[in-house]
Each structure stands twice: as structure tokens, then as C-alpha cells.
Amino acid sequence: MLEGEFTNLINEFGVDVYLNLETETRKVIVTSLTKTPDLYDFDDKKIHTDFPIKRGDTIKIDDTLFIVFSDVQLKRGYEYQSIIRPATNVIPIVIQEEVMEIVDVDPLGRPIYEVVSPEIREDFPCIVFQDKISIDGSQIRVTQQEIQVVMGDNEYTQAIVQNDEFTFFDNYYRVIGVDMFQKGLRIFQMERTAAPA
Q1: What is the pLDDT of residues 84-141, one digit of tens each?
Q2: What are phi and psi of 38, to 5 degrees?
Q3: Does the pTM exceed 0.85?
């Protein structure tokens, strides 16, 4: 009975969202979270659904893309709940490598290449933040040069490995670590580097 009432409540007062890459909207209820000192930098929301969601899913509300940030193990009574965080940044990931083939040779016998299939990059949503300090063994470090990038775990983000380089805010960053302890998310530690040669 309560489950049916909750579904009616969602249908009546819910907002339209897109889950992951779906083309049909679903209805959910979104509520604000009370700001705490460690969350002032984020506009986290709580999402209430009558369909399963999992950490790492993307939820598009209007023109804003959110990542399901907290773990969702079970339905809570008649609903699924999670904290969602806006993915205000994107990271370009190569989803198809450039393919070249030899089409001819020059008079000196050197191959002449032609691009058969161009490189395709796609922007993937992510959350970028900077820890103010970190503890490294017995040392406390101020980490002005390091950022963390949080993304959903999928076949493309699984291809990102240590020493890959990306550009954020006109700065170059190299992946120095990958945290996979939160199922559904990939958290990349990156440090600022000099521009590639």
C-alpha cells in the first residue's frame, strides 16, 4: 500500500530525469541536503526513486548532470535513496583510436599514410575537487598541485591508467593513482605537470 502511495506521489510531484544514457524520462523526487562544513563546495541532493539506482549512475535533471555518489544496496521500505552530486566538469576520453593505412609510397619508397578512421573523443562527466591537505605517512602535506577526479565506473574509465595525462582549467594533470574501493566509482588522483612537449 505505501509503495503504491509513494509511486503516486512521484508521479504527481516528481521531476523528470534521464538515467544514464536512457532516452525516456523517469520521475523522481529530489530534496536538498543540509550543508555541513565539509560539503560547502558541493550542491549535493538526495534522490528518491521507485526504480533501482546504483553508485556511479548518472542522473540528468534539466541541464545538470549528477553522479549517484552514495552506495545503494537495498530498497529502503518503498523507495531507493541516494546522494547525488553535480558533475560540473568533463574529461575527454578517446573512445576510438585513429586508424591509418598505407595508400601509396613516395619516390624514395617511404609509405604514404591516409587516415581511414579518425580519433573520436567524447566528454565524460566528472567531479573534480582538491583536497586542502593530505597525510602521507607521518607527514602532513598541503596539496596545491593535486586534484581528485570522480567518475562512474565503465569500460571507458577503466581504460584510464597511471601516467595518463588530461587537461583541466588550462593546466595539465597526470594520473598518479586510481582508487577503486567505492564500487561504481573510479577516483583518480592527479598531479599538475608541465605542458607536454
Answers
A1: 999 988 888 888 888 999 999 999 999 999 998 998 988 889 998 886 666 666 666 6
A2: -85, -5
A3: no
How many whole angstroms separate alpha carbon 164 and alpha carbon 173? 8
d(CA 94, CA 172): 17
Element containing residue 175 per DSSP (H, E): strand 171-179
- Residue extents of the structural domains in the chain: 2-86, 90-193
CATH placement of domain 90-193: 2.40.10
Residue 68 has pLDDT above 90, yes or no: yes
**Among 79, 74, 68, 59, CA closest to 182:** 68
| Locus of grid cell 601509396 | 104
In degrees, rounded to 5, the angle at the alpha carbon of residue 117 between the alpha carbons of residues 116 and 122 is: 165
One-letter amino acid for residue 98 of the chain? E
